[in-house]
Structure formats: C-alpha cells, structure tokens
Amino acid sequence: MKLCSLSVNILNAKFVADEAEQKCSEQILHEILDIFPHNIFKMPLRKQAEALEHMCFVKVAQTIHSLAVQLEEDPECCKMSKEELSNMVSALPAVINENMIVKVIETIHKTFSRTRRTVGMKTCLEVLLQKHVQRLELNGLFFKMRLQGTINSTIRNIVCARVATMRNLMTLNMVSKCSDEILCVLSEKCPEVSDVNVSISDLVTDAGIKALAKGCLKLENLGIYKCWNITTEGIAYVLKHSKNLKKLKCDQLGAVLINEFSTSKSTFKLTHFEQTQTLFEPTAEDVRWVGSACPSLESVSLFVDDKNLSLVPLLGQIRVLEIETGVMLGDGFIEAIKYLGKSLQTLQLSCNQVQQEFIVVLGECCPSLTTLHLSTAALEGDELLANPGQLFSGLTVLHLQVWKESVLSNKWVDFFLLWCRKLESVLLKAEVGFLTDQYLGTLLAVNPLTEAKYIVIASDEFVPLTLESVHKLMSSCPALENLGLSSWNITEEEFFQIRDDIKTNNYNLNIS
C-alpha cells in the first residue's frame, strides 16, 4: 500500500523551474530512497584480456594484407608468391578461412579510411576466396567504403570467378555491389545456397533473381531491398519458384503477393511480410488472404495509414511490428494493439503525432513488449501520463526520437525511466532542456539502470548534462559499454579526460 501511494507521489511530483533546472522535492526523494534499495555504486566492467584466438586472427589478417600490398607494389621483393600465399590459406579449415575473410576486410577498411588506397584488395580476395568456403560475408567490403568504379568491377570479376568453384557455399552477403552475372554463377555452381543478401545493388535485375530462384532450390532467405532494377515480375517469379523461401526482404512484397497470387490457392512459408515502397491500402479480404496463405508470419513492416492499421491483426499473431505512417495515430492503432496483445514483442513506430494516452494503452495491452522504437514530430495529449508501475516492465530497448520542432516533456522521461528496470539500450533524441545533472541523479536514485549497456542522450541543439552526469552513469550502470554524449555541455578537454580515464582504468566502455 505504501509503495502504491509513493508511486502516485512520484508521478505527480512537480519540478520547480529555476534557470532551466527542475528539482525534485527533497521529501519525495527521501521517500523514494527509503523504499527502494540504495544503489551500491560500481564502476563499468573492466575490459577482458583479449582472447588469443582474436589476436591471432587480427595478426594473420594484417600479415595477409601486408603481403598482398607487397605483391602488388613490388612482387620481386616479397618473400612469398601469390601461389604460396593462396596455398597457405587453402590449408586452413573452412570456418577459419571464412572468419579470415571478415578480418582482412576490416583491415582493408581501416587502411582505406586512413590512406584512401585500395592496393592489396585484389590480391587479398584472390587468395582468400577458396573453394571450401561455406559463408561468404563481403558486405563490409562494399557497404563501408566508397570505391572507384574500376576497383568495383575488378572485385566483382574476382568474386564471380571464385564463386564458380564454391560447391559448398550456403551464404552470400554482398550488399551494394552484387550483379546478375554473380547470381547466375551462384545458381549454376552453388546448389546448397540458402541465404543471399544483395540489397541496394543496382546491377541486380529480374534476370539475376530468376536464375537464383531456379537454380538454388534450398533458398530460404533473400534480401533484395532497394534493388531498383527488380520489377514485380521478378519478385513474383521468386515467390512462385522458391518453395522453401521463409524471408524475402523486399519493399514491394505485399503488393506482389496480393496482386499476383490472391486468386490462387498458393501457400507460402514466409515469416516476414512487408510493403514499404508505397502506401499499403488493402481490403480486409486481401489481408485475411495473406494471413491464410502465410500462416507462419511473425514480423510485419508497413507504410500504412491509421485506418488500415486495424487490419494488421488479420495477418496472425505478429511478434515484430514496424510501422511508418504520415498521419496522426488514431482508432486503427488502438484496435491493432488490442488484438495483438500479448504476442507483440517489438514495436517500431514512425509517425507525425502520438497521443500520450495511446502509449498508456500500448503498455496495458502489450505486456510482452521488450523493444520500443518511437520516432515522431509531436507528443500530445491532455491526460496525465502516469505509469502505475507495471507498464513496460519488461522493456529492454527504448529508443525515443522527437523531431527538432517539438520538445520532449519530463513526464515522458519519468514515465519510462522511473519504471523500466530491465533497460539495456536507451536512446533519447529530442529537446531535453530539463534534463540536468540533478534531474538525472534523481532518476538514477530510483532506477539505477543496472542492466544498461547502451545509453545515448542527444539533441540537435543542446543537452545540459555535464561531466558530473558522466561519472554518475559510470558509477550507477556497471554494464555500460557505450555512452553517447556528443550534444552534452562537455568541453573537448573534458571529453579527452574521460577517454583517458577509461583507458587508464581499462574500463569496457566507449564514449562518442
């Protein structure tokens, strides 16, 4: 009973404004500390000694890259020929070879970021892409670096030639720079392929994905998101011929499914449904058919208006819901979350306006929610935003972003941060002029965020937190690994001081 009464006191406490600072009343703070256990302050965990395995991978990766550079710049002075280096790599077990590809790409990325040179890249790929490889992770090579056209063409040619020898290949991740030619080779030479991601590749067309669907009968996961040269015809062909397909990451999936298959008796093993390229405007019959034809759906991504949000429950017991809407949430949203209820675990919501009472309803209807991403232009509502203590109690991820022209109220921060004790990831990006050192200290006294590993508090303008809050978070959150403080009232000298202290004490913490 005393705890209930205290909860009301906390949520109704008024903060007195004094030069942009709001202070919690001393009486309420004493009551809080009487009931909640005092935090036993701990500093962040120490960095563990680097694993010998990791050290070996890094050292070998650096050596391979160094030899590749020498072979391209001055082959006569190199102690090892390309053939010898290739033979050395080929003797490695497949899993080590696969990890070595990733580590060498990381080394190349660091070198390229520093020097803008791509020397050694061609040779690295020629010696690393061995025939026994089962997982080929090349996304880091292209996605992180803006390379010139000539080297891109060279790399694609090497990948195409090497993939032709990989009879055991199961996974290809080549985001951004894949081509139809590579997919055609994959379909002819790699029958075991089950997972392919070629999103954002403008050289992939219908011809490439049709060949893939025809030749790789074990295909389960395909990413073709933002492949602008793929048409609905190619997507429909994949859906028709890839009988084992479980996840198709494609922003036109919903339109193709409904337009091409709704009159048939086709069924699909899909676990993900998506329509984000254009507004999703189905009939209830359309959505009901999708739910029936795809009985295994677990996640949904939609660009949709509020009215059609009410149809989402017809898709089944959805666990992950990603919604983008250009309007204010209304009855359609309320109806959706009431029906989804306990099944919903993740909600990612981007909209123009959110009524704060809707957030209360979300907490009441979806007790299993663990992840909440909310991006909006305005947080509105006349009703008091009050958390009786049990709402969002299982939340581990809270990302709250309010666009520049709106201000985040302290009531919103209190609503979540006073009560969500399992939070591991916290992102607040908004105008938070009330969030002072004293205010943060009060929050941490109630909820010390002992599980938090990632905390970012940012603003386009200014966050009035200082070096004092850095130390408070470090002492309160022993699991903390990443702290974002770029918008804080911290000087460059203080930033470097914190960084040096972290390094000196060997804390497992990164600041940015």
Automatic annotation (TrEMBL):
Listed GO CC annotations: SCF ubiquitin ligase complex
Highest taxon listed in the record's lineage: Eukaryota
InterPro entries, alphabetized: Leu-rich_rpt_Cys-con_subtyp (IPR006553), LRR_dom_sf (IPR032675)
SUPFAM superfamilies (alphabetical): RNI-like
Biological process terms in GO annotation: SCF-dependent proteasomal ubiquitin-dependent protein catabolic process
Official protein name in the record: Uncharacterized protein
Organism: Scylla paramamosain
